[in-house]
């Protein structure tokens, strides 16, 4: 016996979701837009491609395609019900929206919490819980905007729910937009109808005239939203690019563009078959081109989102009056992917973040597992959760029919899910994982940031004492790098030992205790923002010795610990520190423009102080993550040139007043204890490589004229691998406080080697 396809309500809802045809003066009977489903498939494929496969580079613009589609479909639904009372429409709309969005969104959040509880350490698990709470109330966009504007959050491991920001933007928009649409329609309905003799003879025609008249008014409202939001996005993109990316106010124009299409008269879109196809193909070409042209360095959402929005609008417009010939979007494969696009979008990113813990980040196997897992989970979610809940009014009979039709598919999907989870666990626990730099810090070639496997031979920690330093050119550049001395070799051996540690037992400070990790930092002595005018502020060591100044952001605060430990007995060591500042003066995006003012003031105060104090040595250091936040969006060689020029300007300003200017490299950006420490894990699983952007900034600084350049990579990495724990001195010492900053316990161990390096470079006397 053949079962009739169940779910009349589901079919009706699917038709309503996909848009409708327009009749004379009305939208007419709704029809399913296969090309829109295909457009959804293209959008989600681009997003997953960018996140998982690192191609296309502008694949993140798939979110902008979703925004246009959503604005068009939702506004079409609202206008189709304009004859009903506003209260009835609002109740229907928000109930329908909740049933469509909430079940799967909440299921994914619950899954994220469960996985985080099992695999994450207490600090990271707490952060994931916080992120999840914001995602659950659809405020994730503002939450992540605040975190990404936070200097101390730069480069932290990505949140598994970070992609919920776009969902939050939509839901915030739809808290307001239906009220505005219905309000405009209500105003139009309340206006006295024109009392012509013809209208007086037909109440029906008068009512239809009032309802039709509301559509242009809604179109005007949508146009105002587009213009105002676009202008605000352009302005805020110049002053706070991070907030502009996440803000509902700067994204509303994209949803408004789709809404505007839904309001325009059908007659505007009546074209012959060939012109319709040309418009549709042109729109598709614009979207695909945007994926290749726009990059992460392009201003978002203006001008970066203009191309995908225009392209999406063209594709949608081509099929408003009649279907457009678009086989690339309307085929069964693309429409099928479009049907599960919501699940694909929600599942892929948590899978990616989780698999980065168990598998090699960026490896083909990892990408394949994530992609396959997202497809399986999306299919299961679609048939087991989304469709049944949307089709809920069908009742018990509908459920029995639904089960009869789909039970085999569900059984197969359940087996596939079990096999997927078993494969991930088997692959993960069969091989210790290594961490790559966070995806948004890894530059153009994420694979470059993957650490090589640790060596198999056990480390040998030499105990020889320091010998007189000698210099040898170990790398090309203006400054020959000092050869490894006994302590340098011991540091390298300690790092090799950290690569092989199989347990967190005995590691100090306790990686689960953030307070212990941060203990002892010189910054606690007034160095977070040095009062440069006060000669006693942030001053250590021998008060009668020659002065060595450490100038930097929080990396300077880190280096200060090593400088005091290694130089304090002979020299007066002063920190000229200002946290959260690009101290070389590069034109970086600080979040709000006003936040740059204290940094500029501090840099000018340091220049005045140096001219007066004339220190023997000034050591400059700052985090290289600033090169990722250049205000003009420069990347690659352009970013390196801008970084080098900023260094050179500062050096040229103070060079007449300082005997020796030394530029040193900061610690390696990657992961911290909160990101990878977990009970039962091992430090050998917390290894990062050197990110391409870090190498870019380092090589740029090596070219600065008139300075001594010291590459301190030897303190943090060995053979391209950067562990989180060292066995230097025969004890396991935690290196990192977080993704970037160094523990004071490790800084003190580095002090003698800093003195050795400065002596070898002939900056200070032996």
Task: List the SSEs and their pairings.
Blueprint (H helix, E strand, L loop, with lengths): L7 H10 L16 H20 L8 H19 L5 H34 L2 H15 L3 H9 L15 H27 L6 H4 L2 H37 L1 H6 L1 H16 L9 H21 L12 H13 L8 H4 L1 H8 L1 H18 L5 H27 L4 H36 L55 H15 L13 H5 L20 E3 L5 E6 L1 H14 L4 E6 L18 H18 L3 E5 L14 H19 L5 E5 L8 H4 L15 H10 L6 E3 L14 E2 L6 E2 L9 H17 L6
Description:
By secondary structure, the chain is mainly α. The protein has three domains: 25-330, no CATH class; 359-431; 486-760, Rossmann fold, CATH 3.40.50.1110. The chain has 26 helices and eight strands. The strands form two sheets. The chain has a six-stranded mixed β-sheet with strand order 1-3-2-4-5-6, covered by helices on one side. The chain has a two-stranded antiparallel sheet with strand order 7-8. Helix 3 packs across helix 11 (248-263) and helix 21 packs across helix 26 (744-760). It is elongated and about 85 Å long. Residues 1-29, 193-197, 204-211 and 425-477 have low confidence and may be disordered.
């Amino acid at each position: 016996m053949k079962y009739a396809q169940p779910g009349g309500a589901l079919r009706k809802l699917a038709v309503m979701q996909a848009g409708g045809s327009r009749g004379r003066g009305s939208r007419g009977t709704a029809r399913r837009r296969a090309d829109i489903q295909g457009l959804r498939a293209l959008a989600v494929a681009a997003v997953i491609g960018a996140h998982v496969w690192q191609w296309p580079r502008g694949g993140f613009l798939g979110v902008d395609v979703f925004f246009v589609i959503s604005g068009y479909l939702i506004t079409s639904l609202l206008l189709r019900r304009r004859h009903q009372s506003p209260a009835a429409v609002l109740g229907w709309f928000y109930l329908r929206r909740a049933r469509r969005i909430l079940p799967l969104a909440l299921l994914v959040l619950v899954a994220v919490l469960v996985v985080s509880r099992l695999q994450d350490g207490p600090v990271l698990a707490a952060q994931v819980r916080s992120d999840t709470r914001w995602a659950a109330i659809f405020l994730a966009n503002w939450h992540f905007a605040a975190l990404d504007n936070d200097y101390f959050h730069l480069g932290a491991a990505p949140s598994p729910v970070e992609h919920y920001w776009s969902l939050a933007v939509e839901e915030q928009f739809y808290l307001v937009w239906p009220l505005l649409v219905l309000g405009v329609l209500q105003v139009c309905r309340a206006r006295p109808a024109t009392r012509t003799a013809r209208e007086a003879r037909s109440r029906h025609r008068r009512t239809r005239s009032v309802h039709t008249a509301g559509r242009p008014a809604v179109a005007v409202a949508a146009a105002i939203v587009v213009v105002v939001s676009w202008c605000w996005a352009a302005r805020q993109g110049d002053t706070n690019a991070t907030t502009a990316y996440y803000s509902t106010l700067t994204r509303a124009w994209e949803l408004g563009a789709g809404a505007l299409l839904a309001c325009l008269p059908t007659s505007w879109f009546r074209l012959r078959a060939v012109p319709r196809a040309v418009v549709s193909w042109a729109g598709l070409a614009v979207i695909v081109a945007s994926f290749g042209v726009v990059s992460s360095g392009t201003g978002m959402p203006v001008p970066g989102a203009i191309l995908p929005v225009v392209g999406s609008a063209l594709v949608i417009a081509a099929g408003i009056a009649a279907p457009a010939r678009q086989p690339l979007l309307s085929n069964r494969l693309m429409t099928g992917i479009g049907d599960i696009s919501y699940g694909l979008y929600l599942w892929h990113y948590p899978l990616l973040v989780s698999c980065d813990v168990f598998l090699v980040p960026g490896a083909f196997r990892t990408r394949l597992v994530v992609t396959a897992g997202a497809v399986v989970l999306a299919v299961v979610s679609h048939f087991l959760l989304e469709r049944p809940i949307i089709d809920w009014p069908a009742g018990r009979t509908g459920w029995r029919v639904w089960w009869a039709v789909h039970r085999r598919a569900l059984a197969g999907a359940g087996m596939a899910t079990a096999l997927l989870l078993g494969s991930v666990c088997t692959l993960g626990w069969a091989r210790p994982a290594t961490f790559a730099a966070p995806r948004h810090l890894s530059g153009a070639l994420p694979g470059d940031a993957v650490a090589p496997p640790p060596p198999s031979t056990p480390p040998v920690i030499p105990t020889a004492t320091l010998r007189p330093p000698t210099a040898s050119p170990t790398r090309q550049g203006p400054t020959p790098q000092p050869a490894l001395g006994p302590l340098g070799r011991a540091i390298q051996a300690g790092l090799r030992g950290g690569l092989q540690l199989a347990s967190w037992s005995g590691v100090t400070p306790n990686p689960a205790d953030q307070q212990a990790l941060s203990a002892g930092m010189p910054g606690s002595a007034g160095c977070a923002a040095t009062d440069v005018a006060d000669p006693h502020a942030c001053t250590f060591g021998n008060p009668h010795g020659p002065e060595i100044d450490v100038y930097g952001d929080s990396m300077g605060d880190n280096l200060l610990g090593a400088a005091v430990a290694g130089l304090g007995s002979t020299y007066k060591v002063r920190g000229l520190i200002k946290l959260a500042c690009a101290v070389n003066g590069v034109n970086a995006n600080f979040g709000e423009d006003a936040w740059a003012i204290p940094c500029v003031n501090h840099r000018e105060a340091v220049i005045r102080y140096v001219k007066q104090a004339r220190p023997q040595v000034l050591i400059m250091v700052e985090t290289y993550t600033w090169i990722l936040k250049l205000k003009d969006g420069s990347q690659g060689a352009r970013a390196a040139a801008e970084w080098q020029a900023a260094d050179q300007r500062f050096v040229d300003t103070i060079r007449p007043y300082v005997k020796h200017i030394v530029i040193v490299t900061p610690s390696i950006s990657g992961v911290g204890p909160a990101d990878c420490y977990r009970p039962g894990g091992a430090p050998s699983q917390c290894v990062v490589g050197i990110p391409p952007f870090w190498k870019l900034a380092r090589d740029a600084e090596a070219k600065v004229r008139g300075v001594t350049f010291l590459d301190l990579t030897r303190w943090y990495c060995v053979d391209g691998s950067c562990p989180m724990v060292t066995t230097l001195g025969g004890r396991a010492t935690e290196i990192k406080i977080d993704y970037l900053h160094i523990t004071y316990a490790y800084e003190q161990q580095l002090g003698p080697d800093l003195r050795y390096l400065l002596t070898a470079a002939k900056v200070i006397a032996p």
